[in-house]
Design goal:
single chain; 239 residues; globular; Alpha-Beta Plaits; Structural Genomics Hypothetical 15.5 Kd Protein In mrcA-pckA Intergenic Region, Chain A; 3 domains; alpha+beta; four-stranded antiparallel β-sheet; binds uracil; 6 helices
């Protein structure tokens, strides 16, 4: 099947828009950039859009992992570092992280082989809420937090409005715990926003993704999402 048709069939986008994604170099087949819509793919091939695997005929599986720090969330790593997928080895399904958390970030990470859902959950147009708790250096002032939530210019682009609130302050250690709720997921966004505000992140944890929390799940453990949670995610992204 032609790549553009494959992407359309997988529900990623229309065939026409798929051709644009391909031309923009955002599509990879088996890890290699594919620049031609007529590239032929079949069910054995792994197709990625913006690093997210799409399509496939496997039964759909949905997990929530309480990610420990020290694990990378990309599927391939040239440095042989531990991967979040190593933590789900006991499951048979080939699942992939929904978006990314930095290696030193802990907390809620969804993994699935449902490419269409993953694509939409990470697309900023759906405004999926991600709640982070960040220990930062220094004691941020109210005005600084307002600037952060209004949107900061990072690498020439303004971040979308977010919610920033002070949870607690450690006066002696001159550090503070902020809760930051984002509706987009630019690379290193929380760290970049906090650094730009003059309060570098010391420790970062994701409390929730689309309202889903780790609750009592110990770090490094995972659980299957239940049907209500899966339906809720589908509803959130209009599926
Ligand atoms: N923002 C970051 O800076 N890092 C993450 O891992 C997630 C959000």
């Amino acid at each position: 099947m032609r790549l553009a048709k494959y992407l359309a069939n997988a529900g990623v986008t229309s065939r026409r828009r798929a051709e644009i994604l391909i031309a923009e170099g955002r599509v990879k087949v088996n890890g290699e950039p594919a620049l031609l819509p007529q590239t032929l793919v079949d069910t054995d091939d792994t197709v990625e859009v913006d690093g997210i695997i799409v399509g496939g005929l496997e039964e759909k599986a949905y997990y929530l992992l309480n990610k420990p720090s020290g694990y990378i969330s990309t599927a391939h790593d040239t440095h042989n570092r531990p991967k979040v997928t190593d933590l789900l080895k006991s499951t048979k399904a080939r699942v992939y992280p929904v978006g990314r958390l930095d290696a030193d970030t802990s907390g809620v990470l969804l993994l699935t082989n449902d490419g269409e859902l993953a694509f939409r959950l990470t697309h900023p147009s759906y405004g999926i809420k991600k709640v982070y708790r960040a220990w930062v250096r220094g004691l941020p002032e109210r005005g600084t937090m307002k600037k952060m939530s209004d949107g900061m210019i990072i690498e020439g682009k303004k971040t979308s409005p977010s919610w920033v609130r002070l949870v607690k302050t450690e006066y002696k250690k001159r550090s503070a715990l902020l809760e930051i709720t984002l509706t987009e997921g630019k690379k290193h966004q929380v760290k970049n926003m906090c650094s730009a505000a003059g309060h570098p992140v010391l420790k970062l944890h994701r409390e929730s993704f689309a309202g889903l929390k780790a609750d009592k799940l110990p770090e490094g453990s995972f659980r299957r999402l239940n049907n209500d949670e899966i339906s809720m995610l589908y509803r959130l992204v209009g599926l």
